[in-house]
Amino acid sequence: MDVYTTEEQQVEAIKSWWRENGKAIFLGAVIGLGGLYGWRYYQSEQETSREQASEAYMQVVGSLAAGDAEAQEKATAFLQSHDGAYTALVELQLAKSFVEAGDLAKAAEQLRSVKTAKDDALKATATVRLARIEAQQGNFDAALKELDGVTGDSWKPQVEELRGDIELRKGDTNAARSAYAASIAAASNPVVQMKLDNLPQ
Fold first, then answer.
1. 29 domain-assigned
2. Rounded to a whole number, what is the distance in angstroms from the first to the last CA of the chain?
3. pTM score, whole prediction
């Protein structure tokens, strides 16, 4: 900015600068404030949505636990209207409800849906439960194949114990012995040790 010799020239320079840049400054302020307000509104809506999903989830789970006659319909309605973390949890609860009702096919369908979740713990839980259902239906090879998909070390004791149980039901005592031994090696468990000790030689 040039050095102005009189006050009037300085005032005139400020007015001129404001005429050239005032609209841009005003527009920038409006956009900035609008963006801030919009972001806060979006965050508030997201929080409200999460709270509503949590409340609906609690109602569905409570209904399933109580054995409400309409619990399965409520759970299905929840699954159709929500997505995200609660969906897989409701599917697990719904699968449990189907198992208790003796409808293993529907339970397996729900568990297969959970296996597509992003959370590894939920996927592993669903896979182990699905293996149990396959074994219950006599599909031993399918059950063992499901167990092959669970690779986390924390799951090894449970997976190998279940593998041993399935191999024993198939009539393969040696494979059952190896699975029980692997389960015990991963985590000592007196129940699995008893299963191993009771295997015929």
1. yes
2. 99
3. 0.69
